[in-house]
Specification:
The structure is a homodimer of 379-residue chains.
Chain A (H helix, E strand, L loop, with lengths): L12 E5 H17 L3 E2 L9 H7 L7 E3 L2 H8 L5 E4 L8 H9 L3 E6 L2 H14 L4 E5 L14 H12 L3 E6 L11 H24 L6 E5 L1 H6 L8 E3 L8 H6 L9 E11 L4 E4 L3 H4 L16 E4 L4 E10 L4 E5 L15 E5 L3 H5 L4 E5 L7 E4 L5
Parallel strand pairs in A: 1-16, 2-9, 3-4, 4-5, 5-6, 6-7, 7-8, 8-9
Antiparallel strand pairs in A: 1-10, 10-11, 10-15, 11-14, 12-13, 12-15, 13-14, 16-17
Helix pairs in contact in A: 5-6
Chain lengths: 379, 379
């Protein structure tokens, strides 16, 4: 059903090129098939039922969530196998119990003794049957137990003694976002695999079944050469891709499926500035490309059809104002288009940009909005 | 009505200390009274009916909005005098017309001939009666016509000839966010006043009534010594204040009314890290203090009662993970509190942080949530 031409949309608005999304998904799913590993897409990027279904191959499958609000939302749309991939805390256990009571197979993660004890206590008090993965630190990036730490077996022991299934281990190679070559991405993927499998083997040697070995990040998922011992892969940002991923060499700019539609509201010609009605509220404050070889400011400019104008970036952003200029600051090279002209801005980090919007305007390669897909937000 | 103790809140959650907000509002309103100028608070920070009413002194008054969605929302709650403070574009004129047709006194702004012609054409086509302010560039920061530019009179001439009321001029001294002393803030306030009044005088000399001279930013509103010739002031961030404002010396850390409640989810003790369940999704990616004398990372840590722990900041943020550490990176000075401990994080830029949340949990100085106030978001 057509929802009209994008020329009639009030701006800013979040556009999604569905064919690009489908191609990104097909690429990832083919890679998972080649590597002979199960796929548990992370829905924190899209936060959208239609996109999650596409990531799962058309019908509900295993997913990863970043909030219990996402777990509520997706479980209400037929997704019953959910990994909540942020360390569990006592104040969230009643919510976990409510999801389990509704028949959702919710798995939680933890990396410390306090959380293990809190989970065991909740199981004893309520009789809930929660599976838990122990989070492994594979790259020093964030959370997790080191693969060789005695803590790993200590946590598993507390869980097992308390009637909590030690389902296995999980990790996220967030360090892959700082890799600067294909070679280093391949090495990071192998490090992620090897360290996590090693942790699982230690658990098994200590008598825990620990069947699950879950790894994940978009760069390592696409650059892994072998995933021996890994049982599932999680990835999210690949669904739309973004300038950070393009900067890493994980995708091309033409693979980026999501963009912000904006309208020119004025010029400051002597400075080479073109002002638009998308500021940080529409783009987010994410400056993920600032640390990369090519800084894309607050995003790369495209014309209204989506053709990249790679010399132009959003150099500054206020709440509802963006300033577009030539990337080398040449005032006489200003983007000289009339007030009212629509442009698209490609995002640095699409998880952050999409989170600023309530819905996607779905395009099929033309200028007509073919559908509107809603997002879920908050906690 | 009590909504329970904050200990039972699922985190992250946005807290608002109502007495601090009231004190911030009282300070601003007293300042406006002393300066003998009308106040038109900007609701883009709070985006909340209860807060907007408090800013207006208890009942609906003139407000400033940053989106037409805000205009819809607040006009539905009794606010009928609304300035939409982003340059108007043709694709928004049907929405403007719809608001005017509902009896809302909506004023738009513009700074160029294309927009003036589009507005005049819409008036001719629909008979709508829109008032317009011409935006003035008082500090080179963003949009607007230079006060001495011939363009100012050209735009006014097009509007007047087309039956659009030239209501006056407006500016925003965004440059005040880069001032580093009380003296420079006072000078910026005077520059904002003088240049905008000068532009209005040029319009009047050319035969336009131009009764409105509207200026605004929280720092200049609080540091202005004299507002002769100014008819109204707009300001928004003062309602809650934030670390950027504290860094400017415009408020103290203890004046900051909004914070993000979070829970400790783990530690990486050898690095001095405490991990919490508030990441950039809860804090925003705003790093506004990075350019100030004291960089507050992604926010300053407080204990659960709101007492600042100024040695601790959020040094890094992923989507749903924050990393808290000693501000000087001393691993042996880690914030050693158990998993499950609640903390509060003060925001760099409260407009951005609040925008990540759907509602405020209202506190009255204690640990009980006394009310829940909803926000409006999107476009």
């Amino acid at each position: 059903m057509s929802h009209g031409n994008i020329a009639t949309l009030e701006t800013p608005a979040l556009l999604l090129e569905r064919p690009r999304m489908q191609a990104n998904i097909a690429r990832m799913r083919a890679r998972m098939k080649t590597l002979n590993v199960a796929f548990r897409p992370h829905v924190k990027t899209a936060k959208c039922v239609e996109a999650a279904l596409a990531m799962c191959g058309g019908s509900p499958g295993p997913i990863t969530v970043s909030t219990l609000r996402e777990a509520d939302f997706f479980s209400g749309h037929g997704f019953t196998d959910i990994l909540y991939a942020v360390g569990i805390t006592p104040n969230k256990l009643p919510h976990v119990q409510a999801l389990l009571a509704r028949g959702i197979r919710l798995t939680v993660i933890l990396d410390n003794i306090d959380s293990a004890r809190a989970l065991v206590d909740a199981v004893a008090a309520t009789g809930m049957r929660a599976g838990a993965l122990i989070e492994i630190d594979c790259d020093g990036h964030r959370a997790g137990v080191l693969p060789d730490s005695p803590l790993l077996l200590e946590i598993a022991g507390i869980l097992a003694a308390g009637g909590v299934t030690v389902a296995g281990v999980m990790t996220h190679a967030g360090g892959s976002y700082e890799c600067h070559s294909d070679e280093s991405l391949r090495a990071m993927a192998e490090q992620e695999r090897a360290r996590t499998v090693h942790a699982a083997q230690r658990l098994r040697a200590a008598g825990h079944a620990a069947p699950v070995v879950s790894v994940g990040s978009t760069p390592t998922a696409l650059f892994a050469q072998d995933l021996g011992g890994v049982t599932e892969v999680r990835a999210g940002v690949f669904v739309f891709f973004d300038l950070v991923m393009a900067g890493l060499g994980v995708c091309g700019v033409d693979d980026i499926a999501a963009s912000v539609l904006t309208t020119v509201i004025g010029h400051q010609r002597e400075k080479g500035w073109t002002l638009v009605d998308a500021g940080w509220m529409a783009m987010s404050r994410d400056r993920g490309t600032a640390a990369q070889a090519v800084d894309q400011g607050y995003g790369m400019v495209c014309d209204v059809r989506g053709l990249a104008l790679p010399d132009y970036i959003m150099i500054a952003a206020n709440q509802e104002h963006g300033i577009i200029a030539h990337r080398h600051g040449e005032a006489n090279a200003a983007l000289d288009v009339p007030v009212g002209t629509q442009l698209r801005i490609l995002p640095n980090h699409v998880c952050a940009t999409a989170a600023q919007h309530a819905r996607y305007q779905i395009l099929e390669g033309g200028g007509t909005v073919e559908a509107v897909w809603e997002r879920v937000g908050g906690w």
